[in-house]
């Protein structure tokens, strides 16, 4: 039998996630799929929480490896694209949002976040506003995908939901995201206007 690697364990665990959902992922089931005894997994992950953290990090790779913003980029377009990329990545895995929720960023993630923040500040956004906008868009996205994936897991159909308004999850996400962006842009514009007025009064 080939040597059991950390990468193999994570990949198989993510496949198991797609089949049974987060609640169904167990080290016992994972060991069975890998054809090993359960204690063999402890060479790579001492407890299930470590495995889940590694799964979350790997599942986020498509977003975590996306190109970082360039100085010439328009911050508004980038903000939309970055948040959409986050949503697409969460949707790639069953219970992707639930898996990601609460997972701490790794060292590479912190470096990327710092780069993104520096880009927004260099684009004219106050640092505090940029921080809060990134946090708000992240939590909004996770919450939106949690609801979407929870509905999908229930297998609800139109016949089951007679009298209940149907939600177009992507359209609702886009509208909410634009509200966040519009609020941020308006705040930046007000700050810029006040700064201009204050400068003129000093001349």
Automatic annotation (TrEMBL):
Protein's UniProt keywords contain DNA-binding: yes
Source organism superkingdom: Bacteria
Function: TetR is the repressor of the tetracycline resistance element; its N-terminal region forms a helix-turn-helix structure and binds DNA. Binding of tetracycline to TetR reduces the repressor affinity for the tetracycline resistance gene (tetA) promoter operator sites.
Alphabetically ordered keywords of this record: DNA-binding, Repressor, Transcription, Transcription regulation
Keyword Acyltransferase set for record: no
Entry GO MF terms: DNA-binding transcription factor activity; transcription cis-regulatory region binding
Domain HTH tetR-type span(s) in chain numbering: 3-63
InterPro entries assigned: DNA-bd_HTH_TetR-type_CS, Homeodomain-like_sf, HTH-type_TetR-like_transc_reg, HTH_TetR, Repressor_TetR_C, Tet_transcr_reg_TetR, Tet_transcr_reg_TetR-rel_C_sf
DNA-binding region: 26-45
Listed Pfam families: TetR_C_1 (PF02909), TetR_N (PF00440)
UniProt source species: Neorhizobium galegae bv. orientalis str. HAMBI 540
Stated name of the protein: Tetracycline repressor protein
Chain segments annotated as transmembrane: none
GO biological processes: negative regulation of DNA-templated transcription; response to antibiotic
């Amino acid at each position: 039998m080939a040597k059991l690697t950390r990468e193999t364990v994570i990949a198989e665990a993510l496949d198991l996630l797609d089949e049974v959902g987060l609640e169904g992922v167990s080290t016992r089931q994972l060991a069975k799929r890998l054809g090993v005894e359960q204690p063999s997994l402890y060479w790579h992950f001492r407890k299930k929480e470590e495995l889940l953290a590694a799964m979350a990090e790997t599942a986020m790779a498509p977003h975590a490896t996306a190109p970082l913003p360039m100085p010439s980029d328009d911050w508004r377009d980038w903000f939309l694209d970055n948040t959409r990329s986050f949503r697409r990545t969460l949707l790639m895995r069953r219970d992707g949002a639930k898996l990601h929720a609460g997972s701490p960023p790794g060292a590479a993630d912190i470096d990327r976040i710092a780069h993104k923040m520096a880009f927004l500040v260099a684009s004219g956004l106050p640092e505090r506003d940029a921080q809060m906008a990134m946090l708000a868009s992240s939590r909004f996205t996770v919450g939106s995908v949690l609801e979407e994936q929870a509905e999908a897991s229930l297998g609800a159909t139109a016949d089951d939901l007679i009298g209940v308004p149907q939600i177009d999850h992507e359209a609702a996400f886009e509208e909410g995201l634009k509200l966040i962006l519009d609020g941020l842009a308006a705040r930046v514009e007000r700050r810029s206007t006040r700064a201009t007025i204050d400068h003129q009064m000093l001349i």
